[in-house]
Amino acid sequence: MTTDIRASSPEGAIATPVLEMRGITKRFHGVPALQGVNLIIYPGEVHALMGENGAGKSTLMKILAGAYIADEGEILINGRPVNITDPAIARQSGINLIYQELNVAPNLTVTENMFMGRELRRGPFLDRDGMEREAAQVLRTLGASFTTHDIVGDLAIAEQQQVEIARALKDNSRILVMDEPTAALSDRETEHLFEVIRRLRSDGIAIIYISHRMEEIYALSDRVSVLRDGQYIGSLTRSEISPDRLVQMMVGRPMQDFYEHQRQSTPGPVVLEVRNMSDGRKVQPASFSVHAGEVLGLAGLVGAGRTELSRLIFGADPKTSGEVFLNGQKLNINSPGDAIAAGIGYVPEDRKDQGLFLEMSSRKNIVLNRLKQDAHAGLVNWGAVNQVATDAVENFNIRLANLEIRAVDLSGGNQQKLLLARWLAIKPRVILLDEPTRGVDIGAKSEIYRIISNLAAEGVAILMVSSELPEVVGMSDRVLVMREGELVGELGGSTGRQITQENIMAYATGASEVAGS
Question: What is the CATH T-level fold of the domain 1-94+208-255, as seen in this structure?
Fold first, then answer.
C-alpha cells in the first residue's frame, strides 16, 4: 500500500500532480464527515475512489467541485493553491463533476446544452455558428454518434452522458469526476463509455472514477484510493489491485472473512419442493428442493431463465405446469398473495420498480406486508407495527435519520436492506432472493451476507439468484445451474462436484467437462 505514488510521464520523468487535496476535514453539525483526507491525482490517469456508503467519497468530491467548503485543508491545482468556494471557481480551475443523476435540459439541442449559461456572443447577438463549430469539434473528439442539432431528450441515457462530458471538455476541463457513471447503462453502452474514458486519458485528462463495481475498477483504473469512515486508508497502483486488498481496505477485514455463511455438513429437512415448473417459453420443466437452513444458489448466464423461474414459484407470472410443496404440503399458488400467505417471501432484482414504494416512508415500507397480521377488528396496532420497524432498523443496520425518511432518499444498500426487512418481518419459511446485492457497495454487501447467514442459521430455506460468481461460491451450500431455460447441473451437497467458478461456467456455457464429475 502506498500513499504518495509518483506517476511517470511518457518520457519517464516524474509528473507533477494535476490535483492535490491535503488534510481535508469537513464537519456537519460538529460531526466529522472527513478527517484529514489526502488525495493525489496525476494527468492522464484514471483514479478510482472507493469506499462504502458513508465513507466520505461524495463529500470529498463536492468540496472539490465547490458545492461544499472544507473546514480544514488545502487544494492545489498543478502545484498552485486554489480557493474553491463555489462551482464556478471549480470550473474555471478545470474541474467538472458528472453526477449519477444527469444534469441536462432535455428540450434543448446538444449545442444549447453544452453552452447553457456560457453562450458565445458576437456583440449583442448569440454566435450560433461559433457554438456549433466548437460543439461539433468536441463531439468528434468523443467519437459521438449524434449531432449538435439533436434534441437531448431524444438521446439514449449513454448519449446524454456524453453530452455532459462534451460540456466539460468544452470548458477545457483537466479533471473530470464521474460518479457511478454506468449505473443506468447497458453492457454495450458501458463499453462505449470505457472507450471514451480511455480516449480522454490518452489526451492527458485526469479522471476520478467512483464506482462500487469491482470489474470496472480492474478494467479502467491506473490507481485506486480508498476512504473508510471519513478517513484516507491508502492507495494502490494497478499492479497492486486485488480483491483481497481492496476488501480489507474498505471494510477493515480480510476477504476470507467476507462471506460469513458456513456450509452445512448435514442438510435439514426439505422445506420447499418444486416439481416440473414451467412457463412453456423461457423456463423448461424444472424440479428441485431446498432444505431448512440451506442457501441454494441459482446460477447461469444472463437470459438463462433464473428470474423467470423465481417469479413462477412466487406466483408473479402464470405457469403452464408445475407444483410447489411446503413442508410436504401442496400449495395452490396463483398470485404473490397466495405465496405470502403460505410463508414465502420474494426480493426481486429491481428493488426500485418492483420492490420498494419509493415515495413512502421507511417505516411503511418495512411493515407493509404484515399490517393485516397486526390488525384486530379492522384496527392496526400501531405500537406493534412501530416496534417491528424500529427493531428492523437496528437488526439490519439500516442507516437513516428517522423512520419517516422516504425510501427514495436512502442509498442503494440501505434500500436493499429496507426491502429485506419488509420480507423478513413476516417471518417467512422460504425466501427467494433475486440478485440480493445488485447495485450496493461492498460494506452493504457484507451486511446483507450477514443477514442471509443469520436466516439460514434460523432454519429458513433460501433460494438465491446471483450473477456474481464469487457471491454464489461464497454463500451457497449447493448450486443449481441454468442454461437456456433448463436446469443443467448441480454442484455441492452430495454430488461430489465442487462449487467453483470454473464448474459453474462449465455448466452455464456447456463448454467443458465439470471437474469432479
Answer: Rossmann fold (3.40.50)
